[in-house]
Write a structure and sequence with these properties.
alpha/beta, about 15% strand, globular, about 190 residues
């Protein structure tokens, strides 16, 4: 049996989804549905937004209690603003759950990398980082061009970014929430190895 032509269907898990933004709605939840996985809970800072996303995707519950999410799942997909990645991942790992966290794990934040790695390695479950952009054609081309390096690559980009408060990307403009969001932009170029 295959999932939407993408290979074998993995063992069915009960997933909790931390976050309700663009990547969750456009990538995460559709991917879990295509793989015939059960999404039992959506968590976010705003209970009503989490409940709305949960209802629109057939998830069992929307909540602002991460503990409640952990009590309803076997695996956690973390796609929140970067500042929440590490604390949520540590809590999920500590609860014995499988963890898939969006990149970057901690971005430019100062966090205990050794603890995160040690906890993940000691856990009975799988911990991984979601990094779908490494397969994008443009980024694969860049990687192919960089074989035989090492090279120093200077990349600059500029884009207007001023979302309205109702825009799902607005959080990236709120300093208390988006602590490391700009660090996320440059980590999509895959290693040349």
């Amino acid at each position: 049996m295959t999932a939407a032509g993408h290979g074998p269907v993995p063992r069915r898990l009960r997933w909790g989804v931390a976050g309700y933004g663009d990547v969750v709605r456009r990538r995460g939840l559709p991917a879990l549905a295509a793989l015939q996985q059960d999404v039992t809970c959506v968590w976010g800072r705003d209970r009503s937004r989490a409940a709305a996303v949960a209802a629109s995707y057939g998830a069992g519950l929307g909540t602002d209690s991460f503990g409640e999410l952990l009590g309803r799942c076997d695996a956690v997909y973390i796609a929140t603003p970067v500042a929440a990645h590490v604390p949520l991942a540590l809590a999920a790992i500590g609860a014995g759950h499988h963890v898939l966290v969006e990149k970057p794990v901690g971005g430019c934040l100062d966090y205990d990398r050794a603890r995160l790695l040690a906890d993940a390695q000691a856990a009975p479950a799988v911990t991984a980082v979601a990094y779908y952009r490494r397969l994008a054609p443009a980024l694969r081309w860049v990687r192919d061009q960089l074989t035989g390096g090492p090279y120093r690559v200077h990349m600059r980009f500029r884009a207007a970014f001023s979302p309205a408060p109702s825009d799902p990307m607005y959080w990236r403009t709120v300093p208390a929430v988006a602590t490391a969001s700009t660090c996320s932009a440059g980590c999509s170029v895959p290693p040349a190895v």
